[in-house]
Design goal:
This protein is of the alpha+beta class. The protein has two domains: about 80 residues, Nucleic acid-binding proteins (OB fold (Dihydrolipoamide Acetyltransferase, E2P), Beta Barrel), CATH 2.40.50; about 160 residues, Recombination protein O, C-terminal domain (de novo design (two linked rop proteins), Up-down Bundle). About 35% of the residues lie in helices and about 25% in strands. It is built from seven helices and nine strands. A five-stranded antiparallel beta sheet has the order 3-2-1-4-5. A four-stranded mixed beta sheet has the order 6-8-7-9. Helix 2 packs antiparallel against helix 3 and helix 2 packs parallel to helix 4. The longest helix is centred in the last third of the chain and has 19 residues. Bound molecules: zinc ion.
């Protein structure tokens, strides 16, 4: 069965002498891994369309549940060259892509993650991406994937609390936290920054400059939470530029 959709290349890995496995985030089927025959040969019909972050109109062929359908067509819609050629912008994009690969199931038909990644790449094209913007996209992605931490109140009773428990993924009030160890104490500023990030649009984010301390505090919390839910250290963390 031939399927046509739009996809953004998340990553590629070599397969044999000249073939590639290309992992896309598609607009209709979520994450899809495809097999590309001989794209590394000169004059391949795929040209440069398999570069990471490239958005293309693609077609792939295989049974509906095939683990590795064959890529038959890939026509560039937008190459996002400017993002790929800026080290800073590229690493920012990779942080979010790594999250997508870890948090989203394959063949999820929700379009939200695709729209989110497209919006991030478009933002990165115009500016290399401040830390607030990346934090915003990470939080939005956690929401889409169903892993949004609960920060604005106790996750059990809704009461007031400022201690975030990594193992529970939520703030717990004093009464509900009895016996739970290991918490982060959050400042009022970090909690309110999180609440605002859930409400603001990306264009508003570009104009806001929160305090460095609140931004670092919330970024650290979100990174620890991601480490907890994915049970691994992000590979891009080693290259993070603040
Ligand atoms: Zn409580």
């Amino acid at each position: 069965m031939l399927q046509r959709t739009e996809g953004i290349v998340l990553r590629t890995s070599t397969f044999g002498e000249a073939d590639l496995i290309v992992t896309y985030l598609t607009s209709d089927h979520g994450i899809v891994k495809t097999f590309a025959k001989s794209p590394r040969k000169i004059k391949s019909r795929f040209g440069s369309s398999l570069e990471p972050l490239t958005c293309s109109r693609i077609a792939f062929w295989g049974k509906e549940d095939a683990a590795l359908p064959r890529l038959t067509q890939s026509d560039i819609i937008h190459s996002f060259d400017a993002v790929r050629s800026s080290l800073h912008g590229f690493l920012r994009a990779c942080e979010v892509i790594e999250l997508i690969l870890h948090l989203l199931p394959e063949r999820d038909t929700s379009r939200n993650a695709y729209r989110l990644l497209m919006a991030l790449l478009q933002s990165l094209e115009h500016e290399c991406g401040n830390q607030l913007l990346i934090l915003f996209y990470k939080i939005r992605l956690l929401k889409i994937a169903g892993y949004l931490p609960k920060i604005d109140g106790c996750g059990r009773c809704g009461g007031v609390g400022a201690a975030f428990y990594l193992s529970h993924g939520t703030v717990l009030c004093e009464r509900c936290s009895a016996g739970s160890g290991g918490s982060f104490l959050l400042s009022y500023g970090a909690i309110s920054l999180f609440t605002n990030l859930m409400e603001w649009t990306s264009s508003k984010i570009a104009r806001i400059r929160p305090s460095e301390r609140q931004l670092l505090e919330l970024s650290r919390l979100i990174d620890e939470h991601v480490r907890q839910v994915t049970d691994r250290n992000p590979r891009t963390a080693a290259f993070r530029i603040l």
